[in-house]
Each structure stands twice: as C-alpha cells, then as structure tokens.
Design brief:
elongated, alpha+beta, 5-stranded mixed β-sheet, YceD, Metal-binding protein
Length: about 180
C-alpha cells in the first residue's frame, strides 16, 4: 500500500473542530488528473469516473463519524489474457475517529482496559491530530478494498492459459527430473 505521508489523489480535508449537529456533507467528484492518479495508485488501466458522497458527523463526546458511499467505474487487466475488464464499484464508507489525546482512545491501549473487537462489526476508531481529517483518503481506502484483486474476462478460466503450452518447457523437464531423484 502507500505511505501514510503521501497524499491521496482525492484528498479532501474536512475541518472537524465545530461540526454541525446534522453533519457536514462532502461530495468528491474526481477530475481527469485525479482519476489518472487513482488508476496509477491502484494499478488499474483506467478510472472512468469516481464519485464519493460522505457525511461527517460528531460522534460520542469529541469523536467524528464518517459515513457514505464511493462509486466508480474502472478498467482492469484480466489476469489471464491481459484484456481490459470493466468493473463497477459501489462501496459503503464507514469510519470512526477520535482525537489523539482522547481518553476514550487511550483507555484500551494504555489503561489496561479491554478492547472488544467484533469481526463483523465496525472497525475500532482511528486517531487524528489537530482539527482536520482527510475524508477523501478514507473514501479512497474503501475504493481500494473494493477492487477485485484477480479480475477475469467473462468466460475465461485459468486453464485457458495452460492449453497453449501443453508441452513441458526445458525448465519444467529439469525440475521434474530433480523431483524424481530424492
């Protein structure tokens, strides 16, 4: 993945110091340069469109909740044929944040308290410093997780690649002869 210090192509820094009770709506529509950067970042052939709608709301006493959706149309290379494969991403975005100095965030780690994690439940809160959170980077994380790591063109199986080379290569023959000798 990428380093924490590198900025997301769809970075959107929200000031969370004084959030309205009903939340701060954020809409991110990636332009051509941002879509090209996303494609490079996630090893895609292209990103045709990228749209995130988020709501940044107060959570607990001084925490922040980010929820919404990220949608995108992408083109990947088939892992068998390398042909372009189109895909649509529609992923829920959900994140909780606590200030670094928050007692709630520290209790579990330093206070010897237990943190109960539910594999199906929400992730534990992340911490932030200052008065801002990059909600665009959070949306990009969910976008990245929704990308199929093994895209395949419809009707293509892994065996299709093997049919072309049914004869053993010289390397495979040597390997087989070595395996026979023990």
């Amino acid at each position: 993945m990428k380093h924490a210090d590198s900025q997301s192509p769809v970075s959107f820094v929200a000031n969370v110091a004084r959030l309205p009770q009903k939340g701060l709506p954020v809409v991110i529509e990636a332009d051509a340069a941002q879509r090209a950067a996303l494609a490079g970042e996630h090893e895609l052939l292209s990103v045709e469109n990228y749209h995130a709608e988020l709501l940044v709301t107060p959570w607990k006493r001084n925490g922040v909740k980010v929820s919404g959706r990220v949608e995108a149309d992408i083109t990947q290379a088939c892992i068998v044929t390398l042909d372009p494969v189109a895909a649509h991403i529609d992923e829920a975005v959900d994140g909780l944040f606590l200030p670094e100095q928050s007692k709630l965030g520290r209790q579990g780690f330093e206070g010897g308290g237990e943190i109960l994690l539910d594999a199906e439940g929400p992730d534990s809160p992340e911490t932030f410093s200052g008065n801002t959170i990059d909600v665009g980077a959070l949306a990009e994380q969910f976008f990245g997780l929704a990308i199929d790591p093994y895209p395949r063109k419809q009707g293509v199986s892994m065996e299709a690649a093997d049919d072309a080379g049914t004869e053993e290569s010289e390397f495979q023959q040597k390997l087989r002869s070595l395996l026979g000798k023990s």
